[in-house]
Give the backbone structure.
Amino acid sequence: MSATSAGPAFAVVAVDGSEEGYAAVRFAAEEAMRHGLALRLAHVIPVHVPVGPPLMLGADVELGAYASETLASASRVVADTAPHLHTTTHLLIGGRVSQVVGLARGASFIVVGRRPPSPHDRVWPGGTLDGIASRARCPVVVVPPQRAREGGPARVVAGFKSARSAPELFYAAFRTADELGAELEVLHAWKLPGVYDDMIARRVQEATWNREQRAVIWNLLGPWQESYPQVRVRIGVRHEHPVRALVQASRDADRLVIVKPLHGSAVHHLGRTARGVLRFAECPVHVAPADEMVMAPVAVEQAGELVT
């Protein structure tokens, strides 16, 4: 993760007053401190509030008090997590997605908390997650409800879809694995809808297809492995629904990295796999923006040492 514009580098975290939201604040504070960033705490009062005329007079006061206390609580969480972190609070009014994305122009990344899956998630939490991840021009990290991960080596999983998005995926995944001192698993899962999957399975042996896909990925990984020789890499190829495979992999991972589609500049254009992963993954999900300018690294040897 890196700053995208001139000026002080910063990150943004969306605060909604829930326990899951404060877990995201703790995560954001740790990440901001580790990257040497300032942190902006953002809380949005929705502009369309269903309050009738008899309640309108006291509604503004009550909403404002709740918003102020929410930001104050978030500031206390930051102070407990990273006491020396430079933090600012931002009370915004309007649409959650547009306000958070607007505040994050030039940010290194945005952090958003995710509540446990429920029917209500289809109304605003899911829509907010999808909207921010879709519209933001910087990486977005979605933090799930807290869980106690069992011990073991640090692990980052990168969800590989195609060669087209490989540079953006590997750029984010290798940097994250390097920062966390983690092993990197590049996971490709494929399964076609309905009868088409059966047709492919009959004509092509699954083991042969998986072996060919693994070879393609290894070939694409070459320059990145040269630039990050300290990152251990393994490849997994599965004949399985991508959401199921990635969510299962997230249960034993410290970070799951995916790339949003190149056309994901509008709400609900993340694609089914990304939306499913954001809702059900059990580790933080790093959504890397699609960027046609990202290229595979070129390794050059100078004076007997590798320079990238």
Summary: Residues 53-81 form the longest helix (29 residues). Confidence is low (pLDDT under 50) at residues 120-125, 264-268, 300-308. The longest strand covers residues 38-45.
